Amino acid sequence: MTxxxxxxxxxxxxxxxxxxxxxxxxxxxxxxxxxxxxxxxxAARAQVDMDGDGWADTxxxxxxxxxxxxxxxxxVNPGAYDIVGNGIDDDCDGIIDNPESxxxxxxxxxxxxxxxxxxxxxICRTTPANPASMALKRWGLITAEVRxxxxxxxxxxxxxxxxxxxxxxxxxxxxxxxxxxxSTGSARDADQPGYVPPAPGFADATNSSLPPSxxxxxxxxxxxSRNNCASVSASLPVYDVVLLRLRLRVPTNADFIQFxxxxxxxxxxxxxTQYNDHFLVLLYSIAPGIPYDHxxxxxxLLNPVTVQTAFFPTCTTAAQQPCPxxxxxxxxxxxxxxxxxxxxxLTTTAxxxxxxxxxxxxYLFDASDHxxxxxxxxxxxxxxxxxxxxxxxxxxxxxxxxxxxxxxxxFNPSTRLTFAVPQAGHVAxxxxxxxxxxxxxxxxxxxxxGDHQVTWSGRGDDGQVQPxxxxxxxxxxxxxxxxxxxxxxx
Length: 490
Description:
Layout: H1 3-39, H2 42-45, H3 114-120, E1 140-147, E2 161-164, E3 179-183, E4 208-209, H4 213-216, E5 222-223, E6 232-233, E7 238-249, E8 254-265, E9 276-284, E10 341-342, E11 346-351, E12 357-367, E13 374-385, E14 405-407, E15 415-421, E16 425-433, E17 438-447, E18 450-456, E19 469-477, E20 480-488
Antiparallel strand pairs: 1-7, 2-3, 3-13, 4-7, 5-6, 7-12, 8-10, 8-11, 8-13, 9-12, 14-15, 15-18, 16-17, 16-19, 19-20
């Protein structure tokens, strides 16, 4: 090799040596990093939130990666609801499958607070409004108060709210040892001290306010009843108001809230007048599908629950309307089986966002006067939870119906809605728009138990094709209470 040729190869040799040295250094650094991680204290490594649910190991998250029965670790953290029967410590409290225990029992008609009413609805767990750490950010009741209106924090007359072990002979708690009672008159049945007959009723001359503007503003500043009855101006006061205001943190594995309610009234049979008791449940949530007027309380036929719109299956046939349940459930309630009526037990269901803070405003009031009282029973507040897969290994909370599905979805021009009826009975399947307005009634009849399907052509009850957008199909009755979103695309 000539000197010239040797000289030309020197830079290449030096470059190869430099690359080798750099590679060796990088490997050494990587090895040192891995060794440091392996030798680091567990508390330091646990700062990483592997499943992205907001909780690291140091915040009490027991499952940050899939393993065993845990297929969705983001559903398991201190903010979750512990599902009984799935073999998982969903809420990371160190106890597997621990049910929520009852927190209230018996009659309580004095010293009643919002918290007492919440406990009577089986809301037994509390949580701070501003947790000091993620480990304390659990689901539960944040605040509860009973008042006359949003602008008047004074409590209604003590006669208007109570907790009761039973209401009459047949209205018994669905969970726990009692239920919550609100009334425009006396929240007492015929056997309890302080009972006042609902006709002509109890009156608190100092208890009046304007109806909730969140509800009336989207209805032309009217307190609506039904289409063929005159509505009342929102500028006119309502009377004997009772408002139960609950703030709750939703479990991080829950997507629906549910509770049971029954509306009893002496203002029956319904007639088109301005004298109209209203039961409203306004939900404030960021979940899609909440009606613009926020009201989520409906009867079995998906009407708002007022004297003039509710379907009253519990009544007497002398009232000249169908009364499939007869009047026996009114016995002992203080309402007259021969003249008064009830919706019977209903289940109110609404979507929520896992882990969010929500507010429920539960109103009962009488429009235009103090006469002829109504009463609402509230019980068994619960959550519909998102199961780990497979769903058959977990199941839903009691009270959740068979799934309602739409195929295809999105659709154009039609979609097939399928559902399973667990028991024979009257079923209603109704489509609402995103504002909560009824668009189409697809089913309103008695159905046998088993699988059913119906096609929605995207048309309203008036035969008009609906515009593109999101709609909500809801099926209720015969053990069902399910809602699903469907998207019409043109």
